[in-house]
Amino acid sequence: MLAAVVGAVAYVALIDPDHPGHYPTCPFLAITGCYCPGCGSLRMVHALAHGHVAEAFGRNALAFVTLPFLAYLWVQWAIAARRGRPMQATLLRPWAITVFSVVSMLFWVLRNLPVGHALAP
């Protein structure tokens, strides 16, 4: 799993998402003209891979803030797999998933309103 993530990040680091023709367009953006919660994530990864932390945050703030939680979940999964036990992560409890879902929906709506224009990629 780690090799797949490192390979994907390396690819996005080498092939700039701002240059057209290398990555598919977001279907939601293409159909509606509105940004989805994931829009800007490839550009965020590209910016992070080049050490541009502020730019990465500006590309997709929600995805940027989510990265430490994903890293935590990966470490928990790796430890559980190594010990041969099921994963016991607090972040996967129903309340945490509900909170993340609500935050994602609010982010989705807000970034498409004029007042939330700074959240657009």
Kindly describe this structure.
This protein is mainly α and 121 residues long. The protein has one domain. The chain has six helices and no strands. Helix 1 (2-14) crosses helix 3 (41-49), helix 3 (41-49) packs antiparallel against helix 4 and helix 4 crosses helix 5. The protein is globular.
Q: Tally the helices: what do you get?
A: 6
* Helix/strand class: mainly alpha
Estimate the strand proportion: under 5%
End-to-end separation: 28 Å
Rounded mean pLDDT score: 92
Tally the beta strands.
Answer: 0
**What is the radius of gyration?**
16 Å
Low-confidence stretches: none
> How does the major sheet shape up?
none
Helical percent range? 55-70%
- Counting structural domains, the number is 1
Choose one word for the global shape.
globular
Task: Note the run of SSEs as H and E.
Answer: HHHHHH
Quick structural overview:
The chain is mainly alpha-helical. It is built from 6 helices and no strands.
